[in-house]
Secreted protein (Streptomyces rameus), 158 residues
Amino acid sequence: MRGKRTATGAALAAGALAVTGLAFAPTAAAVTPQTATINASCGIFGGGAATLTATQSGTSATLTLTSSAITTPVAVAKDSISSTLTMAKAGGGTVVFSGTKNPAMSAGSPVSVGPLPGTVTSGAILDAYGGSLKMVIFGVTVTCTATAKQSPGPFVFS
């Protein structure tokens, strides 16, 4: 009887260790790469290098754009920029990420919008080149487009 208790205790301990190991194991990134850079042109509002950061959880994804080369012309309050980021989908079509998420920014501050939510399918390959970012700030629409494909490559969602 004592041998059965020891074996049961050992099995429970091994199971607990396995569960603990899974809880602390690093999770695989659902989207690769997680960051990419683009060169954006925003017409009379300027342009330059920008960074896109992607996250994914199932079919829900977010994209955030930040740029020190593109600056705000006026001070803006937190969550006051209505942004629509349209990404070109490999094989045709687009995927839209939109929302009103942004930090408060003073005039001349680097632009940051997002995380902007959107819906993706497994295997979706998205690139900013061929898409656009439209920001509505105090009723003025600013449209930015990528001048080349993003680097190191398009976002691939799993």
User: Anything to note?
Assistant: The beta strands are 31-32, 35-41, 47-57, 60-71, 82-89, 94-99, 110-119, 125-137, 140-146, 155-157.
